[in-house]
Amino acid sequence: xxxxxxxxxxxxxxxEKTWQSLKSKVIDYLDAxxxxxxxxxxxxxxxxxxxxxxxxxxxxxxxWSTYYLEHYSHKAINILKKGxxxxxxxxxxxxxxxxxxxxKNYVDIIKKYKYVIYSRFDQFYTNYHPPLKGNNxxxxxxxxxxxxxxxxxxxxxxxxxxxxxxxxxxxxxxxEGLDEIYLNCETIYKMQLENYDLLDKVQRIKRFQFTxxxxxxxxxxxxxxxxxxxxxxxKIKYPDEFVEALxxxxxxxxxxxxxxxxxxxxxxxxxxxxxxxxKKY
Length: 281
Fold this sequence. Notes:
By secondary structure, the chain is of the alpha/beta class. The protein has helices spanning 15-30, 47-50, 65-71, 74-81, 88-105, 107-110, 160-164, 167-171, 185-195, 239-247, 251-257, 260-276; strands at residues 4-9, 33-39, 54-58, 115-119, 123-125, 137-140, 153-156, 202-205, 209-214, 226-227, 234-236.
């Protein structure tokens, strides 16, 4: 059995260039297995479908609140709705339910591995994934939004039940006590880790990926606006995240792999920020 299992949860966004970066810089580099957890109607011709070791597929839902009514109480829906406008209701209602689906159905498979990399389909890797070892939860720096970044985590599988058990955590919260708390995916995630004594296990690591998108990708939350200079099909969702990921690499490697689109887009964004610092208001 291999040491690492990569789990991609959600909709297959980002496109083949993004998934090629996953394959070369994560799957092949760490000699990891791949599980994808997504809807049954996934296009089976996609490369990400073809090289997955596990296919954890679920029925498409038009209304994900029905999942919570089937498995939890209406209180969970009320709490998620408190984060409407901040992403918790728009996209979090889906991502958290997927964690619950994995918890209820696939934990025995996950625990055969030493480490799990829990991530999303749309993470474009700018550098090789570090081979992390130990009894921690490693999360890239930044993109915390008053909580903690929930797009990518590496953890020892001894924590997997607590890590995935976010829906029951929400269902047991004091609904009225949340009225003065800013709720989004990141803050509820931090609250959950703290509740299960996992927050002190978290170590922050340098960013080595950014969130990508194709213009045709369906999204429930943030619409990508920034394109690559030499690749108009590939979009950047969060410019700050992109700049941070590119800042942490050795640029000689990018000339070696001929990823000129990333380099030029990074330099362009840095120049825009520099010129913007002289703007008078």
